[in-house]
Design a protein that fits this description.
The protein is mainly α and 274 residues long. Helices cover 58% and strands 1% of the residues. Helix 2 packs parallel to helix 4, helix 5 packs antiparallel against helix 6 and helix 6 packs parallel to helix 9.
Length: 274
């Protein structure tokens, strides 16, 4: 694939209202395949041209998808690009907006994109501290919410059956405007592969506690205000029993459930650890 010659024109074309989703996907792939430019003196120009375009794609042009589809692939590639941006001083003017975009995707999208956004959020909070301390709390609130809803997540998979093609309502999150919408997963959503909402994902639960503990080490002021609420939720999550019998088609979910509970257990904070 040939390198992009004109960032400004290419980024404008990416958000043109009348182009087809497959064209946008092809253009996003071209950006991803040209990302080595971010390690050169052209990085600032690249960000000025593309950051707004990426935000528009994720927040306006496309919507979270819960089945594999070209629109999901487009969102996934854009999130992947944002995750691969070098965290040099060139990025600093864009950090606040990048955090907001990543939090929006994390709280409304599927687990595949949510997992990437957890890495984006964690790396930004780690590399641009202490100026971002005020941005940590929304992430902690999200983590509290997924622990709070952990029991109903287990019920969803192992009692309702979580069959492909059903209508699934993502759990209410701290800022999710889409939580009031019923989102169709499975073939009816335009793809054959079902994707779990990030708010109903054992993988997201597995990744969260280690990030939380590290953030407590970076931003110790937040420990006192969050531990009294967070700790009982973590204990409750590891206490949720799994199914007595696991059908073969739910075995993967069961392994993810137990992996999430083990990770939460290992990361439960003690006075010495925080």
């Amino acid at each position: 694939m040939s390198p992009i010659q004109n960032f400004e024109q290419h980024s404008r074309n990416l958000v043109e209202p009348d182009i087809q989703i497959n064209q946008r996907l092809q253009m996003a792939m071209e950006v991803r395949d040209s990302l080595e430019i971010a390690h050169t003196a052209e990085y600032l120009n690249f960000l000025k041209c593309y950051f707004r375009a990426f935000s528009v794609v994720l927040l306006q042009i496309t919507k979270p998808q819960f089945a594999d589809s070209p629109e999901h692939k487009l969102r996934n590639i854009v999130v992947e690009i944002l995750n691969r941006l070098p965290h040099s001083e060139v990025l600093r003017p864009f950090v606040q907006d990048l955090l907001k975009v990543a939090m929006q995707v994390l709280t409304t999208d599927n687990e595949e994109n949510g997992l990437i956004c957890i890495r984006i959020i964690f790396d930004l909070l780690r590399n641009f501290r202490p100026t971002l301390e005020n941005e940590v709390q929304p992430f902690l609130d999200f983590v509290c919410k997924i622990y709070q809803n952990f029991k109903s997540t287990v019920s969803h998979f192992f009692e309702s059956g979580a069959v492909a093609g059903e209508d699934v309502k993502p759990m209410d999150t701290l800022s999710s405007s889409s939580s009031d919408q019923v989102l169709t997963i499975g073939p009816a959503a335009g793809g054959s592969g079902q994707l779990n909402p990030s708010t109903r994902s054992f993988k997201i639960v597995t990744e969260s506690p280690l990030v939380v503990m590290f953030l407590f080490q970076l931003y110790s002021r937040l420990v006192q205000t969050n531990i009294p609420h967070l700790l009982p939720l973590m204990v409750a999550a590891i206490s949720v029993p799994g199914p007595e019998k696991v059908p073969p088609h739910l075995k993967t979910h069961f392994i993810e459930l137990k992996g999430a509970q083990v990770k939460v257990f290992l990361c439960i904070p003690t006075p010495a650890s925080v």
